[in-house]
Specification:
Largest sheet of chain A: none
Number of strands of chain B: 3
Shape of chain A: rod-shaped
Number of strands of chain A: 1
Largest interface: A-B, 34 and 36 residues
Radius of gyration of chain B: 22 Å
Number of helices of chain A: 1
Structural class of chain A: mainly alpha
Order of helices and strands of chain A: EH
Helix content of chain A: over 70%
Structural class of chain B: mainly alpha
Distance between the termini of chain B: 64 Å
Shape of chain B: globular
Order of helices and strands of chain B: HEHEHHHHHHHHHE
Radius of gyration of chain A: 21 Å
Strand order of the largest sheet of chain B: 2-3
Strand content of chain B: under 5%
Oligomer: heterodimer
C-alpha cells in the first residue's frame, strides 16, 4: 500500500534531507571502519602465518 | 590511434566516469529517496514569496545581498555569474581526495614505520588517483603532453610528482630490495607526497576567473586537511600507534579547522563572486558538505575520537574512515562552490541611497 507523501515547506524538507544524509554518512563511516578492521585482521593473519613458516 | 585501441580506452573512461559519478551522488540521492519514499515527505510546490526585508531585520545572507544572490541564482544567461561545471566534476574531487589522503597516509606511515599504512596510502594515491587521472585525459594519444612545461604549469608539476610518487613509493614497498635503496625511495616518495597533498590547491590558484579558487589559503587548507586524514588513517592501520601520533594528529586537525575558517572569512571579505562562494559553503548548497561532512564528520569526529578513545582500535578505525570521507567532502565543496565572475559586476537594479 503506497502512502501519499505529506507536503511540507521546502525549508523543512531540506532539513529532513540533511539529517537523513548525515545518518547515511554515519553508516558509511561505520562500514569504512569495519573495512579497516577487516584489513587489519587480514594483515595480522598474513604476518602471523609468515612468522610461523 | 586505431579503433581497436581507442574503443576499449573510450569504454574504460566511460566506466570510470560512471563509477565516480555514482559514488559522488549516491549519498544525496539515497537521502532524497529515503525522505520521499520511506518517511513520506515532499517539498511544497507553492511558490514562497519572500517578504521584503524590514528595517532592522536580519539579512538572508551574511555574505551577499539579495540582488547579488539573484545574479547567481536567477539562471538568466545575461548575468555572467555561474557555478563552475568544467572542473567541479566527480572525477576531479575523487582524484584530488584519493591523491591527498593517500599521499598523506603514505608519508605519515613512513614516519611511523608502518608498512601496511605505506601500502594502503600508495595504493590509494598511485592506484586510485592514477586511474582517475588517466580516465580524465581528453585525448589519450596526447598523454605525454601532460608532462610538458613543468616550469609554468602546476598540472605538469603535479604529474611529475605523481609519477615520482608512484615509482619511488612502489620501490620502497618491495621487501626484496636492499634496505638503503628502500629508504632512499621512501624519501623521494615522501617529497613527492608533500607536493601531491598541496598541488591541487596550487593548480586551482591558477584559475583566473574563479575568485574562491584563487585564495592563497586553499593550498594550505588542502595540505592540512590531507595530513589530518593521513594521521587518522595511519592510526587506524596501526596495532599500537606511536605515542606522538595522537598529539600531532590533533594539531593537524586544529590547523585544518583553522584554515577552513580563515578560507571562508577571506572569501567573505572579497569580491562578489568570492562572497557568493562563501555563501554556498556555509549557508547554501554546499553547507552540509563543507560544514557537516567536511568539518564535523571529517575533522571534529576524528579529533574527538583520538582525544577520548585513542586506545580503542574501533574508534581509531571509525576516525580514519570519517577523516577520509571528510577529505572528499572538502574538495568537492570547494570545487562546487567555485563561481565564475564577469570582469565587471552587473549594474545594480536597486539603489541604496
Amino acid at each position: 500500500m503506497s502512502r501519499t507523501p505529506r507536503e511540507v515547506s521546502p525549508q523543512a524538507y531540506r532539513r529532513v534531507v540533511s539529517i537523513t544524509r548525515l545518518a547515511i554518512i554515519t553508516g558509511v563511516v561505520a562500514a569504512g571502519a569495519a573495512l579497516i578492521r577487516a584489513a587489519m585482521a587480514a594483515a595480522s593473519r598474513l604476518c602471523g602465518g609468515t612468522d610461523h613458516e | 590511434m586505431s579503433d581497436a585501441v581507442a574503443t576499449p580506452i573510450r569504454r574504460a573512461k566511460a566506466l570510470v566516469g560512471s563509477v565516480a559519478s555514482f559514488a559522488g551522488d549516491w549519498v544525496d540521492r539515497s537521502a532524497e529517496r529515503v525522505v520521499r519514499d520511506v518517511i513520506g515527505l515532499r517539498p511544497s510546490e507553492r511558490a514562497v514569496v519572500a517578504a521584503p526585508p524590514q528595517p532592522g531585520q536580519e539579512p538572508a545572507s551574511r555574505f551577499a545581498d539579495d540582488e547579488e544572490i539573484s545574479w547567481l541564482e536567477s539562471g538568466r544567461t545575461q548575468l555572467p555569474y555561474r557555478r563552475d561545471t568544467l572542473w567541479a566534476v566527480p572525477q576531479m574531487w575523487w582524484e584530488m581526495a584519493l591523491g591527498g589522503a593517500g599521499a598523506a597516509t603514505y608519508a605519515v606511515s613512513t614516519a611511523t614505520g608502518n608498512p601496511l599504512g605505506m601500502a594502503a596510502g600508495w595504493a590509494l594515491a598511485a592506484g586510485g588517483k592514477g586511474v582517475l587521472l588517466l580516465a580524465d585525459l581528453g585525448r589519450p594519444e596526447r598523454f605525454p603532453k601532460v608532462f610538458a612545461k613543468p616550469g609554468t604549469s602546476w598540472i605538469a608539476r603535479g604529474s611529475w610528482a605523481f609519477l615520482g610518487f608512484a615509482a619511488a613509493g612502489g620501490l620502497s614497498l618491495l621487501q626484496g630490495l636492499p634496505r638503503g635503496l628502500r629508504v632512499g625511495a621512501a624519501a623521494v616518495a615522501d617529497t613527492a607526497a608533500a607536493v601531491l597533498m598541496t598541488y591541487d590547491g596550487l593548480f586551482l590558484n591558477d584559475s583566473r576567473s574563479v575568485a574562491s579558487w584563487r585564495s592563497r589559503t586553499l593550498p594550505a587548507l588542502f595540505a592540512a586537511n590531507s595530513l589530518q586524514a593521513g594521521f587518522a588513517i595511519t592510526s587506524a592501520l596501526c596495532a599500537r600507534p606511536a605515542p606522538w601520533l595522537r598529539p600531532v594528529g590533533l594539531a593537524a586537525a586544529a590547523v585544518s579547522g583553522g584554515l577552513a575558517t580563515a578560507y571562508v572569512r577571506g572569501l567573505g571579505t572579497g569580491s562578489t563572486a568570492a562572497r557568493l562562494s562563501a555563501r554556498d559553503l556555509v549557508e547554501a548548497g554546499q553547507r552540509d558538505r563543507f560544514l557537516v561532512t567536511g568539518g564535523l564528520v571529517g575533522t571534529v569526529l576524528p579529533a574527538v575520537a583520538a582525544a577520548c578513545a585513542g586506545r580503542s582500535a574501533t574508534a581509531r578505525a571509525a576516525a580514519g574512515a570519517a577523516a577520509g570521507i571528510g577529505v572528499e567532502a572538502v574538495r568537492r565543496a570547494v570545487l562546487q562552490a567555485g563561481i565564475h565572475a564577469p570582469v565587471i559586476d552587473p549594474p545594480r537594479v536597486t539603489s541604496h541611497c
